[in-house]
## 1
Amino acid sequence: MRFFCIFFVLVFFTACGNSAVTVFNNIGDDEIHIGVVYPVALRDRDTYLRQGIELAVEQINAEGGVLGRSLRTVIRDDENDAHIAMQIANTMYEQGITAVVGHWSTNICYFVADVYQENRVVMITPAATGTNLFEYKSHYIFRMGSNHDIYAEAIARHMSEEGFSRAAIFHSDDEYGNDFALNIERALSKENIIVIDRITNISPASIDSIMARWNAFDCDGVVVAALMPGIIEPIQLIRGANRDIPIFGADNFYRTNFSSYFEGYMENIFKAAFDFDSLCGNFHEKFRETYGHDPDIRAISGYAAVRLIADAMEAAGTTDSTAIADFLSQLENHPTVFGKLSYNEISHEFENFNVGIIRLGD
């Protein structure tokens, strides 16, 4: 069924004409281009992904480039739309780009992965966390970061250590929310924490009955498995009804403007997050010096992904995508801004990240 759906989309774009091809630059022998694809207009508002990527390119070129050639990015906005993303994925291959940093969500990555895999284009997603992304074996597809399992385990472990016993889960009824909620429920169960409720809707009309139910079952914590902006009103409603009940999230709370939506509601809000104190090298200092503010996790992921692609090209002595993929798939204790990372061939991600729980609003 998955093959049929993707085949249909490809046929559709072939029949309608691929207008996106004309917007790409020609690639000269004096430059190496890598693709950068994500919902630009959306994510540039609340993450620093682009800045992390730009800093990596700037530093690499200052160091002499890659294989003696300047590194350049081809940035495209997929609008978090599967059709647009598929079209861009095909044009990346047609324009001779052998490595892409992108796409953003697991759902979009799930669609484009087959295109990159079949065309032998390396893709490193800087943000997708869904555990089902690698349902099929993909030699050219990689994840820069932790999947939902890692975040769920960190949240459940923290709740157990802090004496939580009965939790509720609020999640969106979509691929992200259902996947994350399932992982949370499993992780809580391993820590002997009972899930007393799992709901997909919190509204002004329902909040009183929801809180009455949670109070009746002695709920002592809530895990949110939904994305911005869909979590704004539910969290405000929960916090408005109970100022003290702890609320937990993970990558769904990774937005530079997150706290701006919850002014007056930030008490006891936590997120599972990478430990920034474990960053290596002078990245943090250089980023702050360049942009005037601290990096977020997406800036670090984008920076690390570009650096890994450059390292792979240098090590292989070529820009050939198969050689890049071979290098990345054999990575072991490779030095990065995250520390020494290794490739996990089962989850297709680079691992050894330090994930802990951060209290927001402090």
## 2
Amino acid sequence: MGFSDVLKNSFVEATQDSISREGIMIALLITCLLSVYIFCIYRITTRKVFYNKSFNISLVALSLITTAIILSIQSSVVISLGMVGALSIVRFRTAIKEPMDLVFLFWSISVGIICGAGLFEIAIWASLLITIAIFVLDKLPAAKVPMILIVDSSDIDSEEAIMKVVEEYSAHSKIKSRNMNAESLNLVIEVKVKEAAECIREINKLEGMNNVSLVTQEGEVTYGQ
């Protein structure tokens, strides 16, 4: 046996850790409990928006899979190198549209890694603090989202009168789109109104009004408007 063989064997033996069956079961059990906890928190926080059950179930599975991988990597350097090679060819092409979905995805993976490493206290305390942060920050008041006022008029000279009414009822108004031809005027206006119904009634009283609509919008809010 040459020097290179001795060095290789000693390296492999030095990186092998004996993991007891009890240790494996405890790691997987705690991971399962924490991932189910993440499942419940995701379900609660997404009750007001579109809830994706399959994504939520995948969070539980992802934590358990990650823990199993970490436990396997700890057992042998050969397995760890094989895992690196196998995972390097995996490509995820599903786009994450919601920022909070990305947070829960990373949370689930982190719990799997931490529990796989046997640092259960860190996983538990981190999960509790993340939960508190999510619920506390969610309760903080946010700026009022502007609404979109759509006005269709047969009087092409009615813009000044429309904006006069809008400014009476809205603290903020901004024309986002203006379409005009020889017979009609169409305005799309960003507004922040408290008495929406009264504002629409007053605009409808103007001469030449065909249709007035006020719709909400989902998106980012700019402070200081």
## 3
Amino acid sequence: MKVFVIGIGLIGGSFAIDIKASFNEAKIYGIDRSEESLDKALSLGLIDEKATMEELGKADVVIVAIPVDATVNILPEILDNISDECLVFDVGSTKKQLCLSINNHPNRRNYLAAHPIAGTEFSGPQAAIANLYRGKTNIICEVEKTAFKLQERAMEIFTRLGMRIRYMDPASHDKHIAYVSHLSHISSFMLGKTVIEKEKNERDIFDMAGSGFASTVRLAKSSPAMWTPIFKHNKENVIETLEEYIANLTKFKELMERDDFSEIYKEMEDTNHIKAILKGIT
């Protein structure tokens, strides 16, 4: 099985590691705009060979693991160059705009819209790790538009890598992911910004930062090159989540100003219910 990975970073590189471990016959080809990343991927053993877009015709599987704006631009070219038997799937965090962009492409049947809910705050080939996807949910959109035999190939890959599969339409995916992923990244970035600005005047503030701060601001270490296009593609849903989040922050501030700590206690107690909702999620 010849697997072409476009974008050899955390996500693409982790797919490469696990596919090589799960499919003895798999040969991994890497495509990346950064020659340095390709060299690093080769030295780490993530890929077997460097490749170019012109070689996609020999691919059995193409994994697109680049920022969503770049995926929208390059996916039609990928579909133009593949064989009739090739599976193409992406791993982007937004789906509606991407699915619309290739809806009428002659090779739409070769494409599967996927979003593995997995990752870390790190980036680049050196961030790739084994078993990143084991036990993680993989959202599949518009599965009915993908050729059945290619669906089967995709499911074999996802199953061997240990993923749980859920099916969703692109609009619902983008709305839900805005709440559980995109908003948390914005919150982390802005918390980090607030503390950095304060730190300019209070040099000791980071000496006081504990594990709570570290875990909350962890996502602020994520790549702006990846997240800015995500926010752009999902602008409407992200703004909606921000409005609701800001309203809750404003309410909390007003309760503080009124010294209404019994209501603050109740707000936090009610929110503790999230422990039951998230039970078992790592």
